[in-house]
Amino acid sequence: MTNLIMALGGVIQREMDTLKSVSQNVANANTTGYRATRSFSVFTASMPAQGTASAGIASRLSGIESHQAINSDAGALHFTGRQTDLAISGNAWFVVQTPEGTRLTRDGRFRTDAAGQLVNQAGYPVLSMNGPLVVGNGTFTMDVTGEVRADGQVRGQLKLQRVADVASLSPVGNGLYSANAPLLSAERYVVHQGLEERSNADLAADMVKVMEVSRHIESVQRALSAYDGMLNSGINQLGKE
Questions:
Q1: Are 173 and 33 contacting, i.e. CB atoms less than 8 angstroms apart?
Q2: How much is the pLDDT for 70?
Q3: How many beta carbons lie within 10 A of that of residue 225, not counting itself?
Q4: What's the rounded Cα separation, in Å, for the pair 220 and 73?
Q5: pLDDT digits (tens, 9 = 90+) for 33-64
Q6: Separation between Cα atoms, residue 139 and residue 108, nearest integer Å
Q7: Based on CB atoms within 10 Å of each CB, which residue in 29, 60, 169, 188 is the most buried?
Q8: How far apart are CA 50 and CA 42, in angstroms?
Q9: pTM for this structure?
């Protein structure tokens, strides 16, 4: 009897995880370079062997696992006109150096520090093919391949990478992502100077999802309460007999 209660509790927890994910998307609908996450469920329980009895709905519910994946679709490009703002079209990521190691980002709202290095909002250096990208403190231009020129000279080549498996990406905060899969040199991309990439979150769809999940949680809670009441009545009746 308690198996069904635990299974329904698991359903509520999975839906709470989904609600958290969707709410995060809504909160970051205007965050530059944000990649929305999507929650989905996978049925992992094996079917009962021939000649054995199924454990019923509790077994089926307990065999569902919740997973999350990052939406790799590109966000809309927005013109800013600032020379340090960069955006990418295609399967490529900027690479920045953090105290925890290199991280990926699509947030191209960069700036220059006192040493003339291109850095992100947190002050982490943006990498070129040969270390931190130094663009100087004057005017510079960047072409569609990521090559930087200043004062008529090539200053470096922006380092851009792609991941072999998008599912391996994990957000680590501040618009940065870590990858648990090999990183490869980016191909078939275009770098845009003076533009930034908006969040790829679908605000309208996510708001609808929030309402759907909230209502489902409420319905499961009512079912759980009703089942608990039935158990309580049954136990009391047995006690009277």
A1: no
A2: 85
A3: 11
A4: 33
A5: 999 987 665 555 544 444 444 455 555 445 55
A6: 17
A7: 169
A8: 23
A9: 0.74
Count Cβ atoms within 10 A of the Cβ of residue 55 and give its class: 0-12 exposed, 13-18 middle, 19 or more buried. Answer: middle
Residue 225, both tokens: 């309460």
Residue whose C-alpha is closest to residue 1's, from 233, 238, 228: 228
**Each residue of 119-146: pLDDT tens digit?**
999 999 999 999 999 999 999 999 999 9
Cα separation of 130 and 207, whole Å? 44
Give the whole-angstrom CA distance, residue 159 versus residue 104.
11
Residue 234: phi and psi, rounded to 5, are -65, -40
- Residue 153 host element (H or E): strand 153-157
The rounded distance, in Å, linking the Cα atoms of 48 and 66 is 22
Reading the block at residue 48, the tokens are 């009962």
When pLDDT is averaged across residues 173-190 and rounded to a whole number, the result is 92
Q: What integer pLDDT is reported at residue 128 of this predicted model? A: 97
The residue written with tokens 């709470």 in the block is 16
**3-state SS, one letter per residue, for 56-122:** CHHHHHHCEEEEEEECCCCCCEEECCCCCEEEEEECCEEEEEECCEEEEECCCECEECCCCEEECCC
**Residue in the structure block whose two tokens are 């969707």:** 22
